[in-house]
């Protein structure tokens, strides 16, 4: 589990692409302070397992499903990526619940400077937008952000200077693709509302709530 508070920016040092997957080596500093084999590190929001490490780099495997479903397949040598170690029991919970399991990709369609903030409009498919709510949380390339605005085809986020400097958000331009992870709680609620217990009477949760005056 992650919080969406990026710890540092890393650099891709090696890419070994296979037919449907790849191996990555990434240079970092802070995330290597207490690293062990098998640890989870989120790379641009994607939860990956450390398979090898030195005092300056760590290696991860990207399996075919992740290769296809995320922007990791677009990485090149010297590319900069967001890095975050898995949350520890004593960590401060500064962001929101982030699993590192990407729901899909979005595209930056507009970028605008407004005083000390930068607004990004991110276009996404309806399968993602249905989980996006005004003032709700979303992880973009692993960064925990608040939804600033909503439209039929995109959502808007507002980025402060600190986040622009400390993450790869500052490098995003119109046309850039990003990894999106929706709020986990919303997905669980949808599941509860649409799947009923086979052993219970044939009435789903939405019908039950409506029948008892809660909806």
TrEMBL record:
Give the Gene3D superfamilies listed for this entry: 2.40.30.20
Q: Which domain of life is it from?
A: Bacteria
Arranged from A to Z, the UniProt key words for this protein are: Repeat, Riboflavin biosynthesis, Transferase
Q: Name the catalysed reactions.
A: 2 6,7-dimethyl-8-(1-D-ribityl)lumazine + H(+) = 5-amino-6-(D-ribitylamino)uracil + riboflavin
Q: Where is the Lumazine-binding domain?
A: 1-96, 97-193
Q: Give residue ranges of the Lumazine-binding repeats.
A: 1-96, 97-193
**Pfam families listed in its UniProt record:** Lum_binding
Pathway(s):
Cofactor biosynthesis; riboflavin biosynthesis; riboflavin from 2-hydroxy-3-oxobutyl phosphate and 5-amino-6-(D-ribitylamino)uracil: step 2/2
Keyword Ubl conjugation belongs to the record: no
User: For this protein, what is any one GO molecular function term?
Assistant: riboflavin synthase activity
Q: Might you give the EC number(s) for this enzyme?
A: 2.5.1.9
Q: What does this protein do?
A: Catalyzes the dismutation of two molecules of 6,7-dimethyl-8-ribityllumazine, resulting in the formation of riboflavin and 5-amino-6-(D-ribitylamino)uracil.
Q: Any idea what this protein is called?
A: Riboflavin synthase
Q: Which organism is it from?
A: Shouchella hunanensis
Its gene name is: ribE
């Amino acid at each position: 589990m992650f919080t969406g508070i990026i710890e540092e920016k890393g650099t891709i040092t090696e890419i070994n692409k296979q037919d449907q997957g790849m191996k990555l080596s990434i240079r970092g500093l802070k995330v290597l302070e207490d690293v062990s084999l098998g640890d989870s590190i989120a790379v641009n929001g994607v939860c990956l397992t450390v398979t090898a490490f030195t005092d300056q780099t760590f290696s991860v495997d990207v399996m075919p499903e992740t290769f296809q479903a995320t922007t990791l397949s677009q990485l090149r040598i010297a590319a900069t990526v967001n890095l975050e170690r898995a949350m520890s029991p004593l960590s401060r919970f500064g962001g929101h619940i982030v699993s590192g399991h990407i729901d899909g990709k979005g595209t930056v369609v507009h970028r605008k400077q407004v005083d000390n903030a930068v607004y990004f409009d991110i276009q996404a498919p309806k399968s993602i937008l249905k989980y996006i709510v005004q003032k709700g949380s979303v992880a973009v390339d692993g960064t925990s952000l608040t939804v600033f605005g909503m439209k039929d085809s995109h959502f808007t986020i507002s980025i402060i200077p600190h986040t622009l400097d400390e993450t790869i958000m500052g490098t995003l331009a119109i046309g850039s693709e990003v990894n999106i992870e929706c709020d986990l709680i919303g997905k669980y609620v949808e599941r509860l509302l649409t799947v009923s217990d086979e052993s219970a009477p044939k009435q789903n949760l939405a019908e039950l709530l409506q029948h008892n005056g809660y909806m």
